[in-house]
Design a protein that fits this description.
Layout: H1 10-18, E1 30-34, H2 40-53, E2 57-63, H3 74-83, E3 87-92, E4 100-107, E5 110-123, E6 140-144, H4 147-150, H5 152-165, E7 180-187, E8 203-214, E9 222-227, E10 231-240, H6 244-250, E11 265-267, E12 273-275, H7 304-309, H8 317-320
Parallel strand pairs: 1-2, 1-3, 6-7
Antiparallel strand pairs: 3-4, 4-5, 5-10, 7-8, 8-9, 8-10, 11-12
Region (Disordered): 1-23
Main location: nucleus
Family: Belongs to the RPF2 family.
């Protein structure tokens, strides 16, 4: 760990203040780093995933022999403090775990959680001769599969991908600026026989598409998806979850950002707003009804109080009958 630096001048003090906790987080930066041994598939995967994350990404092209996330986290803590980065992707390759990627999240200078995946059927960004999206555009995410709701490992991996590519928080979205879609599909194939015996059963399909606006004869265009790349099949190998106390602290929402609760107004599970209205006591005797002859009061219906307060209306011949 780096020592806590005391600011010597106003410039260094402003630099340290940028790293302090804030009510609204900055865009999270990510470092894509190579381990002691990598393959061509891993190098291309790190480069392509970095391009999707740009401009908030740093790609280290040199090999690092000290990077072993599951064994020793000293180097990652050093890079986290030095580059003010909380997201890492470490690429490695070995006989035991070929074509390996490790997605890592940091909190307070320490490792929060990690998910290690193996790459299969990789296709790089350059293999797709199609149009590409612009740099810094927020993607649309599509998660398909019950595993993202039922499996804790897949939930964590889903949350990591959203953290990596969520970009800057915005209030308004220009629909024409939604240029690409990241589709992640999880399939539980327990009966499937895989050559990777160390991986969990099931496979995750990672695909990236660009949106094409076609004429539809109406005001709203017809949307078509064209695969942009990269394309990977991931198999989850190893993982490490955060402690409950640390995860609760990492996901704590400041009181300033919490929405103010309005009295007697709630939101149900479907997202509909439900309100409770309190009415005063109603006097039904003063309720205005439809005026018709059958509802007119006759002299026999009047009480003594009515006689004192009102004048009797003479009966007609039909009413007397």
């Amino acid at each position: 760990m780096l020592k806590k630096i005391k600011p010597k001048n106003a410039r260094s003090k402003r630099a340290l203040q940028k790293r302090e906790p804030k009510t609204e987080e900055n865009v999270k930066k990510a470092i894509f780093i190579r381990g002691s041994s990598t393959s061509q598939i891993v190098n291309e995967a790190l480069s392509d995933l970095c391009k999707l994350k740009k401009p908030d990404a740093i790609n280290f092209t040199k090999k690092n022999n000290t990077i072993h996330p599951f064994d020793n986290d000293t180097s990652l803590n050093f890079f986290c403090e030095k580059n003010d980065t909380s997201l890492f992707v470490v690429g490695s390759h070995s006989k035991k775990r070929p074509n390996n990627l490790t997605f890592i999240r940091m909190f307070d200078g320490q490792i929060l959680d990690m998910v290690e995946v193996g790459i299969e059927n990789a296709k790089s960004l350059s293999e797709f001769k199609t149009s590409k999206c612009a740099i810094g555009i927020k993607p649309l995410f599509l998660f398909v599969g019950d595993l993202f709701e039922n499996s804790q490992v897949h939930k964590t991996f889903k949350n990591m991908l959203l953290d990596f590519y969520r970009g800057q928080s915005v209030k308004n979205i220009n629909l024409s600026g939604l240029e690409h879609v990241i589709s992640v599909t999880a399939i539980d194939s327990s009966s499937e026989q895989s050559s990777d015996t160390r991986a969990m059963p099931g496979i995750i399909y990672f695909r990236v598409y660009t949106t094409q606006f076609k004429k539809s004869g109406e005001k709203t265009p017809r949307i078509e998806l064209e695969e942009m790349g990269p394309s990977y099949n991931f198999r989850i190998r190893r993982f490490k979850f955060a402690n409950d106390d640390v995860y609760k602290l990492a996901t704590k929402v400041p009181k300033v950002n919490k929405p103010k609760k309005i009295k007697n107004i709630d939101v149900n599970e479907m997202g509909d707003k439900i309100g409770r209205i309190h009415l005063g006591k109603q006097d039904l005797s003063k309720l205005q009804t439809r005026k018709m002859k059958g509802l007119k009061r006759i002299a026999e219906d009047y009480t003594e109080e009515d006689l004192e307060s009102e004048e009797l209306v003479p009966l007609t011949k039909k009413q007397k009958a």
